[in-house]
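note to self: the first set is below, dont mix up w the second
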Amino acid sequence: MNAFAPHTFDPHASWQPLRDRAAATSNPRHKKLLEEVANHMEAEINGRLEPLMATLTAEPVYHFWRVGPENMVLEGYEAVAGFYSTMFASGGEQFHVVVERIIVDDNGVITEGRVRQVYRSADLKAMGINEVNGQAVEDHELWLSNAQLITVWPADPDAKLVGEDIYFGEDPMSTLQPIAAESLPAYYKL
């Protein structure tokens, strides 16, 4: 596969399908839930901890169900805030969720699509990945994963998110392809 075109990697486009769906939704609770998920995604991808945590209940619970690496559970405000603080410190928040399906009811929202993440070759080597599809990782400075993702966003009666249940349909590291720096949006921080 060739490097992705610039328009296919745009983290700031991640929350727009939720805003569009909210605008087209007449049910006030569903509208509020969709907006809360959009607010959460926007704050996360922009690395803003306080607005992100404001979308959650006081004691959120996260489940990461993965193919490949071990599953992970985060319980409580401090654990979740710590997770995001670490993510933001490393630049890991700059991912693109390509939302293909949105399901909403009174209990929460489900999003399905793909999650795309850029990795430097040095980061992959630090993770112990020295080769991708027969290519040495240093052959390309930047790599893009493109993995299937379903996220369940349960909510409380006040439409605050109880957490996230994140299901990876494949190991993101198994989807790596080279990406050119020119294919990243101008706002992306390398």
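second set (the one i keep forgetting abt)
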Amino acid sequence: MILKEMGVQRIVVKAVNDLHGKVLKRIGADKVVYPERDMGQRVAHHLISSNIVDHIELSADCSIVEVQVTGHMIGKSLKELNIRAKYGCNVIAIKRDEKMDIAPSADQPLGSQDILVVVGKNHDLQSFEVTFAE
């Protein structure tokens, strides 16, 4: 409240739970963040899905995941895997040798060290992850 009275335009605060967040919003916070909860969700998702490198929630129903290429995918192209048609997800990039290819060729075979950056609805991403999990 003091910061608002001082004229601070944007106030971002950390909350420990939803009730704490509601209180902070009511007293003037512009944005409430929950770093422990968010990181806990990311760690849990990583532990449950062995081939998930990272998970970024975009909204309540959409995310971006980094998926390690598994044995089922090695040597196949994005065109052969047909991820968009089968799962409703889009491969937006491929990490290969510490480089990011943000316009991956649909015909290039995937290597064992490649990481796919995939965006989609959470339920579609889960179907994709389950199918290609090792």
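remember for set 2: Residues 73 and 110 are 7 Å apart (CA to CA).
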